[in-house]
Write the structure tokens for this entry.
Amino acid sequence: MSDPTRPKQPRIIAVANQKGGVGKTTTAINLAAAMVEQGARVLLVDLDPQGNASTGLGVEAEKRKLTTYDLLIDEAPLAEVIQSTDIAGLFICPANSDLSSADMELVANEKRSFLLHDALRQPAIDVFAFDFILIDCPPSLSLLTVNALIACHSVLVPLQSEFFALEGLSQLMLSIREVRQTANPTLRIEGIVLTMYDGRNRLSQQVENDARQNLGDLVFRTVIPRNVRVSEAPSFALPVLSYDSASKGSEAYRALATELMARHLIARRMETA
Ligand SMILES: Nc1ncnc2c1ncn2[C@@H]1O[C@H](COP(=O)(O)OP(=O)(O)O)[C@@H](O)[C@H]1O
Ligand SMILES: [Mg+2]
């Protein structure tokens, strides 16, 4: 139950797809940066032992004193794990390889699937006044991803514009259905976003047509093009929006943020009407 004495709670969105290399981390970083550019306050939770989101936002390994691992395993307070980034309004809960043993360390913990759910609802984070929390999931349907699916309100699925893209989706949809039937009945699909799209490539167009035909309005109008600036930005520890603000990749992530946030404004207006 929501507590009426607490301020409006952030919308929690898990960026998930059990396939690696489809653009989860890239989307989490750049969507977060674009939302912040448009006035939102955003927390990015790095839930991947590879820690790519942390690196990509300039939190180097030695600066990760407390991490998502401490949050989940040692119940470190979220407010202490959160770090600011060079971008005002954008915060991160960093991760490192410690997280790779979390699955095993948690087998005997009865609450193991709910740890992230509970951590993200700690009243102590109200002071940050986050509008959105994005969770960058690992490339698996492991306990970590299950934690994300239980913790979140909705799932954003990056779909790489290549052959077999849709095939992998059915497994994720099954996991979402399972979580809905048990721990998180109101779990929604925020949307599916086509990534690394190459308009000159017939395969990209075919994946887009298939996705729109099969999944309809779940697929965002915005597609993220394959853009070299997007792939260069992490090595400068910057979102592409800061690295090359005028690039096609930056424009696409801005459009995605606008499209996503517009849906929520409409939803909120309907709630309060
Ligand atoms: N729109 C894009 N254009 C070019 N390269 C991209 C784009 N999106 C992602 N990449 C690159 O593809 C690789 C995988 O992306 P990443 O976001 O790390 O995937 P995941 O988190 O799903 O494993 C990275 O090297 C990234 O820089
Ligand atoms: Mg990743």
Remarks:
- The chain has a mean pLDDT of 94.
- Strands lie at 11-15, 42-46, 83-84, 90-93, 132-136, 154-160, 188-195.
- Residues 20-26, 52, 139, 195-196, 224, 226-227, 230-231, 249 surround adenosine-5'-diphosphate (ligand 1) (CB under 6 Å).
- DSSP finds twelve helices and seven strands in the chain.
